[in-house]
Amino acid sequence: MNCEQCQQTLKCSADTDCWCMTLPNILPISKSSGCVCRPCLIKNIRAHIENIKSKSIKEQLALARPYQNNTNFIEGIDYDMENGLLVMSRWAHLKRGKCCGNGCRHCPYR
């Protein structure tokens, strides 16, 4: 099976516990029935998180709330590495549910 976006070969096990189930299930339902690889799915999730900026903070928090207790941070979704430093993403801040007061670059509460 190939990723429907980049055509990379991938293993999909949707009928059992697929690797994609470890990522936040926040994307709108798609008409496509194909699978995407991990990098493409992370890219799609990041784009969706950027797109919901226009929604109220209450709506954004409602989307993140089910993942609030998930402490398995995912590079590319919850954080990025920049110059050897861990930079928390907008999604990580939404999952926290409130501002930490550190003046974070991606803080959605400002």
UniProtKB/TrEMBL annotation:
Cross-referenced Pfam families: DUF5522
InterPro entries reported for this sequence: DUF5522
Protein name: Cysteine-rich CWC family protein
Organism: Pseudoalteromonas phenolica
